[in-house]
Amino acid sequence: MFYLIDKLYLKLCIPYIHFLHNGKIQEISRFFADSGKDKFAVIEHVGYKLQGYFVVPRNDWTVDYFNPIEGLLVEKAKEWEGIPKGLSAIEEARHEIEHYQKYLDSYGYAFFVMRRPEG
C-alpha cells in the first residue's frame, strides 16, 4: 500500500479498492477480504476527516499498470522457478489482474484523501 503523508502528518492519501456501485460481487469481496469494510467509517474512526476521493481512470490501471506487469510476471516466473514465495506472489498478481479484467465495471481503485483535524 502506498501512503503520501505531509511533513506535519495532517494529510494522508491512500489508494484502495473501491466498488463502483452498491451491488458487490461475492467473488470480488472474497478476493479483497477487507474491502467490504466501510472505508469512510474507518477513516473517521482513526481520527481523520475525508477530504475527498477519486476513482483512478480504467486506462491508468490497464495500459499503465496491469499490461506492463503481465510482461514482468512472465520474466519473473522464469527467474523465480523453484522459489515458492516468488511463484506465490506471481500467482497472486495474476489473480488480481484476472479479477480486474473480469469485473472492471464493478470495481476500481480510488485514492482517498484525508486530513487529521488540528488540535
The stretches of 5 or more residues where confidence is low (pLDDT under 50) are: 1-8
Number of helices, counting only DSSP H or I runs of 4 residues or more: 4
Shape: elongated
Strand arrangement within the widest β-sheet reads 1-2-4-3
What does the average pLDDT come to? 77
Indicate the CATH class.
Answer: Alpha Beta
Helical content stands at: 40-55%
What are the secondary-structure elements, in order, as H or E? EEHHEHHE
CATH topology: Rossmann fold
The whole-angstrom Rg is 17 Å
Q: State the end-to-end distance.
A: 28 Å
- Overall SS class: alpha+beta
CATH architecture classification: 3-Layer(aba) Sandwich
Q: What is the count of structural domains?
A: 1
Kindly estimate the percentage of residues that lie in beta strands according to DSSP.
15-25%
CATH homologous superfamily title: Vaccinia Virus protein VP39
Oligomer: single chain
Largest sheet: 4 strands, antiparallel
Beta-strand segment tally: 4
